[in-house]
Design goal:
- By secondary structure, this protein is mostly helical.
- It has 8 helices and no strands.
- The radius of gyration is 18 Å and the shape is globular.
C-alpha cells in the first residue's frame, strides 16, 4: 500500500516507462495490408500507435523528475517531447473533421510532431544520462533503431529488409531499462532527485 504520493509517482512513472512503448511494438508486428484492404487491421494499428504516443507522453513527464540536475535545456526538451507525442496521438482523431479541409495543413503538423517526438526522445535519454540517472548506451539504442533499418539493406545486398519492429523494440528496451531502474529506486533516492 502506497502511503506517500512520491511512491505513487515513482511506481507510476516506472510502470509507464515499461508499458508505454509496447503498443508501438504490437502495432508494427501486425501484418501490413494494401491500401483499401484490411480496414480492421489498419484501424487497430492506428489505435495502438495513438495509445503508445499518449502513454509515452505520460512516461516522459514522469521521467522528467529524475532530470532536475541535468539542466534547463534537457527539461524543456522533455516537455516539448511530451507535447509532440500528445499532438501526434490526437491529430488522427481530427483527420475527418472540418479542420482537415485545408490541403496538407495537418499532414505537415503530423510529420513535424512525429519528428519532434522521435528526436525529443533521444534528447530526453541524453538528459537522463547527463543527470546521472540513465546509462550512456540508451540514446545509442534509439539511434541504432533509426539507422539499422536503413543500413542493413544497403550494407548487405542479399539481405532482406530489416524488420519493421526493430526500432520500437529497441526503444521499448531503453525505456523499460529506465522503468525498472525507477521501480528499484528507494523513496529517499527518488525524493533527492
Amino acid at each position: 500500500m502506497m502511503k506517500n504520493t512520491a511512491d505513487l509517482r515513482r511506481v507510476g512513472s516506472g510502470l509507464l516507462l515499461i508499458i508505454a512503448p509496447l503498443p508501438d511494438v504490437v502495432a508494427t508486428a501486425l501484418p501490413s495490408v494494401a491500401y483499401g484492404e484490411g480496414r480492421a487491421v489498419t484501424q487497430t494499428a492506428s489505435l495502438l500507435y495513438q495509445a503508445g504516443d499518449l502513454l509515452t507522453a505520460l512516461a516522459i513527464i514522469g521521467l522528467l523528475h529524475t532530470m532536475s540536475s541535468a539542466g534547463v535545456f534537457w527539461r524543456v526538451a522533455g516537455w516539448l517531447t511530451a507535447a509532440a507525442n500528445i499532438v501526434a496521438s490526437t491529430l488522427p482523431l481530427v483527420a475527418d473533421t472540418e479542420l482537415y479541409k485545408a490541403p496538407g495543413a495537418l499532414d505537415y503538423v503530423f510529420v513535424l510532431s512525429m519528428f519532434l517526438a522521435g528526436t525529443g526522445l533521444l534528447l530526453v535519454l541524453i538528459g537522463a544520462w547527463r543527470a546521472g540517472f540513465g546509462h550512456g548506451a540508451l540514446p545509442l539504442l534509439i539511434v541504432a533503431g533509426w539507422v539499422l533499418p536503413i543500413a542493413i539493406p544497403l550494407l548487405i545486398i542479399t539481405s532482406p529488409a530489416a524488420p519493421q519492429w526493430l526500432p520500437p523494440m529497441l526503444t521499448a528496451f531503453a525505456l523499460a531499462w529506465l522503468g525498472v531502474k525507477i521501480l528499484r529506486t528507494s523513496r529517499e533516492k527518488w525524493d533527492s532527485y
